[in-house]
Design goal:
With 157 residues, chain A is mainly alpha-helical. Chain A contains 4 helices and no strands. Classes of the chains: A mainly alpha (157), B mainly alpha (434).
Chain lengths: 157, 434
């Protein structure tokens, strides 16, 4: 299961990285245009939308690689059994928190899907909010596998 | 229950959850969510959980972070960072402790392309530690100087700490970057002086490295001319007002890719690796930032920052004494927390207080980043020390902590200088931006 999510997250991170690179190129192109007295209309708006795609997939990728920062100063001093139980509890809280964020983000998406546009180019926010919710959903799936793994660890003991 | 009591309970719950191993971003988000639920309503709390994360992610200002991260990862992947070290090693490596001083110089150079202290430490550590081992440097000095030298990464722009502080407090990131430049260079000089004193006192700590001819020294500049030019364009353009910090990040990342390709140092595999590492760090940072912005909103609703500003501001103590107390809080937190968490947790509380005491927002930003940097090399968390331990597994961690002690003493004098002579920070931003 984790292997599948790793692949899913790697696919997502490739899309995210492409958008990050695209954003970089767009910003630099706009600066070069500016030297000649022109601007790329809405480059600022497009950039902020592109970073949404990059971050949406980066969140899950960081979770797959356990990159989210944890302070381990107390936990590591506890007996192994307590560490495992706390691991389950913390995975559960992480999952619940990201699930609430995903659910609430979906709520916003469903309420604003027809009305929300960027100021200059009238680009609808809808696809970007959808991608953000998708990224959060992938993150939740990763935390579910984390939780299952942590539970297995406790049961084994 | 009053909002302030709920805020205090929220803080206590957050510390407990973090101590039990909850990821920092999740901890701040869950406490912020719970607090808003109790203080306002369930509906309002859920609404905020839907709005704040997307607004945090779709932020032009925060996009600065992944772009500067990409710049640093490309420079690291292409090996251009080594050239910065080589320049310093060729010019001062023949002095007593010269290779350690060159390492600090390399850290200062890499700091100008990296937004992270740990990245600076690890990058320079990978290059410099084998060199110092080869010349029989004392392991405590060699690892200590790399761990401490890395902290320059957060002061010399670009800096993730300064960007985060600027966004949280709505202070100009450009001014913060300019404000960090002189203190960062001074920090490097303080560290070099420390190494010089140590190696003059005990020459065995840092033997002389090889000497190079003037021609070889000048030639070393040619090897990193592009990177120095890139730093000049990125920082110069930012300081001159040609582009915003986010645009500077894009120019830096683009320039790093361009020059790495030009020097045939970057292939597809290396570029892919740099991108993937950037995405991983970006995910980690935004995970924290989303939680921090939810927590910040909760703190604002509790009114704690403003009440604290009123109460502490009314104490019969000189502002400088209160500032010293705030700094001691940072020293304490630095022992148990990482840099970004400290900034995100404390700034919403302290910032209104500091402004009410009449201190400058730019100056305070530099002080905050300086203090959280010190936390990166103090036990028991000292993340830079652990990072160096990871790349120098043959050196016990206690030896590395012993090695950073002289640099902590230098830090004390450096912080005192910044505290009592604010012009060190403010002179340049005032001169360049009015």
């Amino acid at each position: 299961m984790l292997a599948f999510f790793r692949r899913l997250s790697s696919g997502g991170v490739a899309i995210g990285a492409a958008f990050l690179t695209g954003m970089m190129v767009l910003i630099v192109a706009n600066i070069i245009y500016r030297l000649f007295g022109h601007v790329i209309p809405g480059s600022y708006e497009i950039s902020t939308l592109m970073i949404v795609v990059a971050v949406a997939f980066a969140l899950g990728y960081a979770a797959v690689h356990n990159s989210h920062i944890v302070v381990k100063i107390v936990v590591t001093r506890l007996p192994q059994r307590w560490q495992s139980i706390l691991g389950v509890l913390m995975s559960l809280i992480s999952l619940a928190t990201w699930a609430v964020i995903a659910f609430a983000s979906y709520n916003v998406l469903s309420q604003r899907w027809l009305t929300e546009m960027t100021d200059l180019l009238d680009i609808p926010y809808l696809p970007f909010r959808m991608i953000f919710v998708l990224g959060l959903a992938i993150l939740c799936l990763i935390y579910i596998t984390d939780l299952v793994r942590a539970l297995r660890g406790v049961l084994k003991r | 229950m009053s909002p302030i009591t709920i805020g205090i309970i929220g803080f206590a719950a957050l510390f407990a959850l973090l101590a039990f191993g909850l990821p920092i971003g999740v901890g701040m988000a869950v406490v912020g969510f719970g607090g808003l639920w109790v203080l306002i309503s369930q509906g309002a709390a859920i609404a905020k959980m839907g709005l704040i994360p997307f607004d945090t992610v779709a932020s032009w200002d925060l996009a600065t972070l992944p772009l500067f991260l990409l710049m640093a990862h490309v420079i690291f992947a292409s090996g251009l960072s080594r050239d910065l070290y080589d320049v310093a090693a060729k010019w001062i490596g023949h002095q007593r402790g010269g290779i350690a001083m060159a390492t600090v110089g390399g850290c200062a150079g890499f700091a100008a392309v990296s937004a992270s202290s740990i990245a600076t430490s690890v990058t320079m550590g990978l290059v410099a530690l084998p060199e110092m081992k080869r010349y029989n440097y004392d392991p405590a000095l060699s690892t200590g100087c790399v761990a401490a030298g890395g902290t320059i990464g957060q002061l010399i722009p670009p800096s993730a700490g300064l960007i985060t502080y600027g966004i949280i407090t709505e202070t100009s990131i450009g001014r913060l970057f300019i404000g960090g430049l002189v203190p960062g260079i001074l920090e490097a000089l303080f560290y070099m002086t420390t190494i010089y004193i140590l190696c003059t006192w005990k020459p065995g700590l840092g033997p002389r490295g090889p000497a190079y001819s003037f021609r070889e020294k000048m030639a070393s500049f040619a090897s990193c001319g592009e990177i120095v030019g890139l730093i000049a364009v990125v920082l110069g353009g930012l300081f001159a007002g040609w582009f915003t910090p986010t645009e500077a990040g894009a120019v830096g990342a683009f320039g790093a890719i361009f020059f790495s390709l030009f020097r045939r140092r970057l292939n597809w595999e290396k570029f892919k690796h740099a991108l993937v590492e950037t995405m991983k760090t970006t995910g980690m940072l935004y995970g924290i930032l989303i939680g921090a912005f939810i927590f910040k909103y909760f703190m604002a609703v509790t009114q704690i920052p403003f009440v604290l500003a009123d109460v502490v501001g009314g104490l019969p103590l000189p502002p400088l004494v209160i500032m010293v107390l705030i700094m001691l809080v940072f020293v304490f937190l630095g022992c148990i927390m990482d840099a970004l968490t400290m900034i995100l947790l404390t700034i919403p509380i302290f910032f209104p207080l500091v402004l009410s005491l009449g201190f400058d927002a730019i100056w305070f930003g530099i002080i905050v980043v300086r203090m959280v940097e010190i936390g990166l090399i103090t036990p028991p968390i000292g993340m830079n020390v652990y990072a160096i331990s990871g790349i120098a597994p043959d050196v016990p961690i206690t030896t590395i902590f012993k090695g950073v002690v002289p640099f902590l003493i230098a830090d004390f004098f450096h912080v005192a200088l910044l505290l009592f002579v604010p012009a060190v920070v403010l002179f340049l931003p005032n001169l360049m931006m009015g």
